[in-house]
Amino acid sequence: MKIAIVVNTSWNIYNFRLSLTKALLKEGHTIYAIAPFDSYSKLLEEKGCVYKEIKMDNKGTNPLKDIYLIYNLYKAYKNIKPDIILHYTIKPNIYGSIAAKMIGIPVINNVSGLGTVFLHNTISSQIAIQLYRLAFRYPKKVFFQNKDDKKLFIEKKLIKEEITDLVPGSGVDTVKFSPLPFRRNKTFRFLLIARLLYDKGIIEYYQAAKKIKKEHEAEFFLMGSPDQSALGIPLSLVMEWDKENTIKYLPFSENVAEAIHEADCIVLPSYREGAPKTLLEAAACGKPLLATDVPGCREVVEDSVNGYLCKVKDAQELADKMVKMIDQNPEKLKRMGEESRKIAIEKFDERIVIEKYLKAINGIFI
Known about the structure:
Layout: E1 2-6, H1 10-16, H2 18-26, E2 30-35, H3 41-46, E3 50-53, H4 63-80, E4 84-88, H5 90-103, E5 107-111, H6 123-135, E6 141-144, H7 147-155, E7 164-166, E8 188-193, H8 202-213, E9 218-223, H9 235-243, E10 248-250, H10 256-262, E11 265-268, H11 277-284, E12 289-292, H12 297-300, E13 307-310, H13 315-326, H14 330-348, H15 350-365
Parallel strand pairs: 1-2, 1-4, 2-3, 4-5, 5-6, 6-7, 8-9, 8-11, 9-10, 11-12, 12-13
Helix pairs in contact: 2-15, 4-5, 5-6, 8-13, 11-14
């Protein structure tokens, strides 16, 4: 069977969909990776995929460019003739579904988070919602990564409930991400891993760090790639925080596990998530977690069990929960980490995601 995986970056396929890709290749399928070209495109070919470049303006809202994207996806699908298409991220989900419908190819979509569409009430957001309503009439199956996102789409009548299902994000490799023997740093270390976006709660993280440093010994690290969109935090601002010794900035590294292991607690004060990879990887590494009580985060963090939840956009409560984490004795921190590991294995192991997809794909052709 020919299966196309369509995403807004090759990086995304390699970092988030590779385990599923390998499982499908092992089943004997031919996998076409359709995405814009970047440094990971060749790596996908090395893993056994057939790579096909597609140009895609990920952040833009130009209607002419989006119509052209539908045309380009249509041409790609007509040329490849896949038996089924797996879409991820907003533009492939919407425009890919429309292009596939024009040819009659079945698709499975994955809503990996609502991004900025439901966080900001703008004209672009309203247009996107209407496009979801149009495009989501066509898929055979749509996976959501948390029950809140699924409920929202159903309540807004963007999708029929009978074609929806849940998967635990993109899952986590619990072998690659595994605990090291417990130790607590002499100076407690917090780490936030995220793209440099306001919606990730990075400003609140900075504000909380400033408050805490006045009275407590603690270190605050931020790892992530800059984002050039209007929603991105300027790297120059982050470097100012680094210079004033409030937050230490770390450029994004492929060896995320190493950074996680060096921290005492992983923080994600995001405004909304699908199923955040950062928290899943940290949980698999056996770390205490601290996150906002929002969709996506609350699925991974059980308050007072494997970490703490705090109010969204509330730097003071974030700081209070950080202090609570600092004040915990080593045995309590160790138990929290063990609970994180247990949650990762039981609820978020990538094998759960792979089995769901294999079942959905086989179900379409039975």
